[in-house]
Amino acid sequence: MVFDGVEGYKAERQQRHKDVGIPDWELVRDGQRLGVVETKLKVAPARSWDTSARARELTRYMRHLEVPGMLIDSQRAHLFRRGESNPVRTIERRSVTASDLSAIREHFLAG
């Protein structure tokens, strides 16, 4: 839904990266990585994203792949810019709008 109409887009599941691990999803367009997505059942609120094991896992993949990322659970999607360890936007999944979906798409296409 987010990438409807984007030619050459695909999501690759669990590609191994030596010394880094296996991210849940990599978003790819025409062979170029656009982003990485980690999916969890629940991301516990953290006082600081720097202390969140889930966020640290995502940012490790982002640094290695040099792409932005998204940490998503059953309630929220957190968008992280490339090189940053705090989300720039959090989207409540129960009330997601077309504008939110556009923001996710632009997040990954902008790199």
Helix-strand layout with pairing:
Blueprint (H helix, E strand, L loop, with lengths): L8 E5 L11 E5 L2 E8 L13 H13 L3 E4 L3 E5 L8 E4 L5 H13 L1
Parallel strand pairs: 3-4
Antiparallel strand pairs: 1-2, 2-3, 4-5, 5-6
**Under CATH, the topology is which?**
tt1808, chain A
The largest sheet, given as strand count, sense and whether it forms a barrel, is: 6 strands, mixed
Radius of gyration (CA) equals 13 Å
Q: Number of helical segments?
A: 2
The helix content, as a percent range, equals 10-25%
CATH architectural type: Alpha-Beta Complex
| Mass-distribution shape | globular
Structural class: alpha+beta
Report strand %.
25-35%
Reading off the top of the CATH hierarchy, the class is best stated as Alpha Beta
Number of domains: 1
Strand order of the largest sheet: 1-2-3-4-5-6
Q: What is the total tally of β strands?
A: 6
Low-pLDDT segments: none
Summarize the structure.
The protein is 23% helix and 28% strand. The chain has helices spanning 53-65, 98-110; strands spanning 9-13, 25-29, 32-39, 69-72, 76-80, 89-92.
